[in-house]
Design brief:
Length: 456
């Protein structure tokens, strides 16, 4: 939406539309959560219906093992659905919520799987009057599909290790991305033992329902993560039109194609980009659109943080591009008609630069960076501020004298009405957490603080 169009909309209409969008997102989130919990309740009902009684320690351990196993299998399907990036969920629920749910589903899946393993082995050991190690070896070596299930457990544990925050900081995005894909392999390997050994799947109707759940989850992945991006890229014939250096380690890449006016992209959204060039084919990385879409092309601005992002500086014009998206709900609707405060750190400025140009009323932007040359796109932001009469503030750590502390006192000093604004954040996780804390201390309620994670 252009600045002129944004100004032409009546303030009351903007606020009502914004509140309606925020309310729709809340309703969608509650509806999806209710559906997930209803599914979990239905899974528990399977165990309840198939269990006449629980007697003795062996029965309790085995029963608990069956319950955690059923829930772990269900959580695997939910995890896959959350990884599918269904556009409806992305638009209504929001990428930030979906990311948090995905992380929670991952932790739940691993916790339930470990509990299932320990409980079921102990229950069988008590029943057979043997020790857990001997019983565990017997189960793995002699039960159907248990070798594959064991491999699935090891893959899930590996994924958990690389997803831990301490490990993520030591891995490149490309390495983490490839390792994270092992989740698909783990779910596939674990499925067979559920059907072969699960007492609750003896009934044909239950077994058919479980197949529908898993096949449906797989279909969402195939369609939205594979076929839809392929269709988008073939229809629009995306290609690199040019690369421009913005800073010593930051470049902007212009992508053009056919029928670009039909590609609906909202300010603040991002794509997962796959550049069909040597060394870049096998990785799809998330980068925000850093200029207002004009119907002719899309621009992304990327900082060299890993092998993929560093290589973009050398991509040649004419290189074909596959794009997956657009994703993200960090859009003007989140403002709900209020004036906005935009807080960015480093290259996190990219989606906020577009919002700064398109949000109505009196947006204020504050950009933190380590050095003056890291204030990427500052010339564009200054031009937007001058054109709109808006305010932009900058902070750098070096040299001394330009630094703005990230705290409530500073925010109130720069933006006295901060408590009444909608706040948009984009930056590294640690900085984002500090910014959220500062905003809450400045009086901004949590529901008006918006940010998104690009971690999956």
């Amino acid at each position: 939406m252009s600045t002129e169009v944004a100004r032409a909309v009546r303030p009351g209409g903007r606020r009502r539309a914004g509140r309606a969008a925020a309310g729709s997102a809340a309703v969608a989130a509650l509806s999806v959560q209710a559906a997930i919990w209803a599914g979990a309740a239905a899974v528990l009902a399977l165990w309840w219906v198939d269990t006449a009684s629980v007697v003795g320690p062996a029965g309790w351990f085995t029963g608990a093992g069956r319950i955690t196993g059923l829930l772990a299998g269900y959580a695997c399907a939910v995890l896959v659905v959350l990884m599918a990036r269904v556009p409806f969920l992305d638009r209504t629920v929001g990428t930030d919520r979906m990311t948090r749910w995905h992380a929670a589903a991952g932790r739940s899946t691993i916790g339930l799987t470990l509990a299932h393993t320990v409980l079921i082995v102990e229950g069988y050991a008590l029943t057979g009057r043997t020790d857990p190690v001997t019983e565990g070896a017997r189960v793995v070596l002699h039960y159907p599909d248990m070798l594959k299930a064991t491999a699935a457990l090891l893959l899930l544990l590996l994924t958990a290790v690389v997803s831990a925050r301490a490990a993520r900081r030591r891995l490149s995005h490309e390495t983490w991305y490839y390792l994270h894909l092992l989740t698909y392999a783990a779910v596939f390997l674990a499925f067979g033992h559920q059907i072969a050994n699960g007492a609750d799947f003896d009934r044909p109707a239950v077994r058919a329902g479980w197949y529908v759940l898993y096949v449906g989850a797989a279909a969402l992945i195939v369609w939205f993560r594979m076929l839809a991006p392929l269709r988008l890229s073939r229809r629009h014939a995306l290609r690199v039109a040019g690369v421009r250096r913005e800073a010593p380690d930051v470049v902007s890449v212009l992508v053009v194609g056919e029928r670009m006016d039909e590609l609906t992209v909202r300010p603040g959204q991002f794509f997962r980009w796959r550049f069909l060039a040597p060394g870049l084919w096998w990785t799809a990385s998330p980068y925000s659109v850093s200029a207002v879409p004009d119907g002719r092309g899309l621009r992304i601005t990327v900082k060299a943080l890993g092998g993929h992002s560093s290589a973009l500086a050398t991509v040649r014009s004419g290189t074909r591009v596959w794009a997956e998206g657009p994703y993200g709900a960090l859009t003007p609707d989140r403002a709900a008609g209020r004036p906005a405060l935009l807080l960015a750190a480093g290259v996190g400025i990219t989606p906020l630069r577009v919002l700064f140009e398109t949000l109505p009323k009196d947006p204020v932007l504050i950009h933190w960076a380590r050095r003056p040359e890291d204030l990427v796109l500052r010339h564009e932001i200054d031009a937007i501020a001058a054109h709109r009469g808006a305010r932009a503030h900058y902070s750098v750590s070096h040299p001394a004298g330009y630094h703005l502390p990230l705290d409530a006192v500073t925010l109130r000093g720069l933006v006295p009405d901060v408590a009444g604004r909608a706040c948009f954040l984009c930056g590294p996780p640690g900085w984002t957490a500090a910014a959220e804390t500062a905003l809450r201390e400045a009086g901004v309620p949590a529901h008006r603080i918006h940010h998104e994670s690009f971690a999956w």
